[in-house]
Amino acid sequence: MRSLKYLIIFIFFVSCGYTPIYQTDEISKFKLGIINHSGDKKIGRDLLNNLQRYKDKKSNNIFDIYLTTIKRENIVSKDKKGDPSSYKIELEINLDLIGKNNDKKFSKKFIKETTYNSIDDNFKLNRYKKKLEKNLTSQILQEIDNFFSVIQNDI
Q: Is residue 139 part of a domain?
């Protein structure tokens, strides 16, 4: 009975055309050459680590990528004492792709923001802020992947 269930699931995945989203061994229409970054170092490091998989693609269309990251932290509201009660974090990433073999250029600006309430314990507040930054960075990386999928049709 158990093996029948696994057989049915296996047949379903084989017949429906399932392919992994981040499959790296397929031939792409472009690959990244030089990856340059300026701005916030920690966020830039996360972006660079995740974009490395585009350097190993097999393609003749090579693009250099230039990333500029800007992180803004603002106080949204204060309490009666004048202490901050809520904050807003905004990540802005400017992405420029410049072709080495051709003169094609693509540019896009990615902006994500979130607000959060203040916590009395500064250690917990900093940990929470880092977690929010990581979540915003991963959302922007998903948007960059979608952008790369769209521009592959234009190459």
A: yes
pTM for the full predicted model: 0.77
And the tokens for 76?
């949204």
What type of residue is 153? N
Render each residue's pLDDT in the chain as its tens digit; 155 residues.
777 777 777 777 666 666 665 554 445 677 888 888 999 889 989 998 888 888 877 777 788 899 999 999 999 999 999 889 999 999 999 999 988 888 789 999 999 999 999 999 999 999 999 999 999 999 999 999 889 888 877 76
Strands 105-117 and 31-39: unpaired
In a domain, 9, yes or no: no
- Cα(96)–Cα(58) distance, rounded to whole angstroms? 21
Largest CA distance in the chain: 67
Domain presence at residue 89: yes
Phi, psi of 105 (to 5 degrees): -135, 135
Residue 36 neighbours by CB under 8 Å, 6+ apart: 64, 65, 66, 67
Instruction: Answer yes or no: are the C-beta atoms of 95 and 107 closer than 8 Å.
Output: yes
Please give the Cα distance from 29 to 52 (Å, whole number): 16
Residue 133 in any domain: the answer is: yes
